[in-house]
Each structure stands twice: as structure tokens, then as C-alpha cells.
Amino acid sequence: MSSALASTGGGGRVAVYSGTFDPITLGHEDVARRAALLFDEVVIAVAIAHHKKTRFTLQERLDMAAEVASRMPGRVRVLPFEGLIMDFCRQHGATAVVRGIRNLTDFDYEAQMAAMNRKLNAAVETVFLLPQAELQCISSTLVREISQLGGDVSQMVSGAVAARLVPKPLQA
Length: 172
Known about the structure:
This protein is α/β, with parallel strands linked by helices and 172 residues long.
């Protein structure tokens, strides 16, 4: 086992799974659930995301992620974050960043980010997980668009998230 994945001592192996989660999808859930089986603790880090308009407020995204996390095995926490993910990892004793990848486009982008993150903090490994095949086509962007147009997203998000997806304007 690499030293980056070794136990951190007191808290065990901590991984951070970050994103805007606007909204959290079944694909996100699948990746977080499997990460929870690999690590002693997973922190779902919900980005404040000042750089883009979100459909849901930060508090709504935190609430949805917390509801999803409550049904997962192991220790899964949900926290907001702002700034560099490597700084957040350092603050929370994380030894890994978990990234879900659905396709080659995701992989190209995530590989570049992983290399840059390694330059910022070589002690944190990036672990790529693929969601189940039937979930790989799901993205938060498509869920928002389908929902906004009145489509059925019940096979893309949990029931609790689907209930929140009534057509509403984007957040400023």
C-alpha cells in the first residue's frame, strides 16, 4: 500500500469527494458509496461555487448530500468547501481525493487536475472510480435541464432529490 493511502493515525484513511453536486445524482451516490467501502472516512465536500450559477443554494446542496450520505455504509460526512481542494484535504487529514469519471472526456480533464493537485500536495493521491454502467450517462447538468423542462428524473436522482427538482430559476 502506498504511504499516501496508509492510515493517518488517529482518524484512519480519509478521502475527499468534491463537487458542486447541483444536484447530487445517483452516479455521485454510487461513487461515494463505493469510496466509503474503500476508506475509513469519506468527506463529501460541497463546493461553494462562486464561479458558476447553481440551481440550488449551498445549504440545499449540503442538505441533499447529507440525506444521501445518511444511507451510506461507513463514516461519511458532508462539509462545504471553498478554495483549493488540496488545502481542504490538508485541513481534514485526507490522503486521497476521489473522482468519478464517466467517459474519456472526464478522464482527460480529471487526469490533468490530478497531476496539478499532485504538484500542490504530493501526499494526496487521486483515486478514479467509475459509476455503474447504467449511471454513466447521468450528469447534474442534464438532470437540471430535463427537470426544468418537466421530464422525469426519478431514475437519475434519489427520491429526496427528485422532490426538490420542481422547476425553479437558477441561483444568482
